[in-house]
Amino acid sequence: FTLTQGIIGDSVTILHLDSMGEITDALVGRDGSVSHISDMVVSGDYILLGSPYNNYIGRVPRPNAPHHVTIKNVRFESAEDADESAAKKAAEEAKATRARQEQAKKA
């Protein structure tokens, strides 16, 4: 095999296709930093580029990557606690329903 870099130039175009083969997105590189790309994987805020002809994996920032989300005040609740809490809530709702029914009978 021989590389055809001189023939194809420095540009690389990577197409994202949907299940019907329609192009849904394209990534175009014109600076020559990567070549002969055969595979692409989105990993977080980056796109990883692979090729059987290169001895490296390219990594470029993902255009329009979603904003980072900060999660605060996370607490762990075991399944037993969740079941107990749900049972307690159901009992309170049943009690409130009975109280409303009693009030309706008195009225």
Automatic annotation (TrEMBL):
Residues 78-107 are annotated as: Disordered. Residues 85-107 have a biased composition (Basic and acidic residues). This is Putative alkaloid synthase. The lineage of its organism: Eukaryota, Viridiplantae, Streptophyta, Embryophyta, Tracheophyta.
